[in-house]
From TrEMBL:
Name used for this protein in its record: TetR family transcriptional regulator
Lipid biosynthesis keyword on record: no
Coiled-coil spans in chain: none
Taxonomic superkingdom: Bacteria
PANTHER family (UniProt xref): HTH-TYPE TRANSCRIPTIONAL REGULATOR BETI, HTH-TYPE TRANSCRIPTIONAL REGULATOR RUTR
UniProt-listed PROSITE patterns: HTH_TETR_2 (PS50977)
Signal peptide residue numbers: none
Ranges where the HTH tetR-type domain occurs: 14-74
Organism: Kribbella speibonae
DNA-binding region residue numbers: 37-56
Keywords of this entry: DNA-binding, Transcription, Transcription regulation
């Protein structure tokens, strides 16, 4: 009975959180992030201002509400990867799979153009995006260390940097008005290539280190 009540409570919290974020996002897309206050979001969502902050630590997180999902998916991909699959390969498969599904976390679609415009217009959002990406990198590094990946922090940093470069390049192209179908196809190929380069480079370094140690 207690478990059932806790489950309903958690579902209710998740529903309120999703509704607040949905309403906030609509306002941000319509008027821009900096032009909308948290109080306006609370009024539109018919909740108290403290309720907004009970679900979101920062105003920016109202728009970036899916970052926790991204972190959880990446950590799970590393933790649950098949034997013989590297952590970087697991991340690559996840990101390409999400893109193929049209998932907002990885897909390159013209329908997301306004979202990216809002981010490009706000230094606060850009700063928060960098902070959240650093959090994801740290979570990935911890998962890599837990699953015995050599040099986990270096591996996580290189993988995140590679994908960030590919992702931002694709976003800029869509903002410049390029055909999103072409951008999406090239984004997919470049994701595979960039992460394969990281994986291959790290494997090469490990082999060199092993050879040097054996030669001593």
């Amino acid at each position: 009975m207690v478990t059932g009540m806790q489950g309903r409570r958690e579902r209710k919290k998740a529903e309120i959180r999703a509704r607040i974020s949905e309403i906030a996002t609509a306002l941000f897309l319509e008027r821009g992030f900096d032009a909308v206050s948290v109080s306006e979001v609370a009024e539109a969502a018919d909740v108290a201002r403290p309720t907004v902050f009970a679900h979101f630590a920062r105003k920016e997180d109202l728009l970036f509400d899916r970052y926790p999902e991204a972190e959880a998916l990446m950590v799970a991909a590393i933790d649950e990867r098949p034997a013989g699959t590297s952590a970087v390969q697991a991340l690559s498969s996840l990101l390409v799979g999400l893109a193929d599904e049209g998932h907002p976390l990885s897909a390159m679609r013209g329908q997301f153009r306004r979202f990216w415009e809002v981010v490009a217009e706000s230094r606060a959002l850009q700063s928060r995006a960098r902070e959240l990406l650093e959090q994801i990198e740290q979570a990935i590094a911890v998962a890599m260390a837990r699953t015995d990946v050599p040099e986990p922090h270096l591996t996580a940093a290189l993988a995140v940097a590679a994908y960030r470069t590919v992702h931002l390049t694709a976003v800029r192209r869509i903002l410049d008005g390029e055909d999103d179908a072409v951008v999406a196809a090239e984004h997919r190929a470049q994701t595979l290539h960039a992460l394969a380069v990281v994986d291959g480079h790290l494997a090469g370094l490990r082999n060199q280190t092993t050879a040097a140690a054996t030669a001593r």
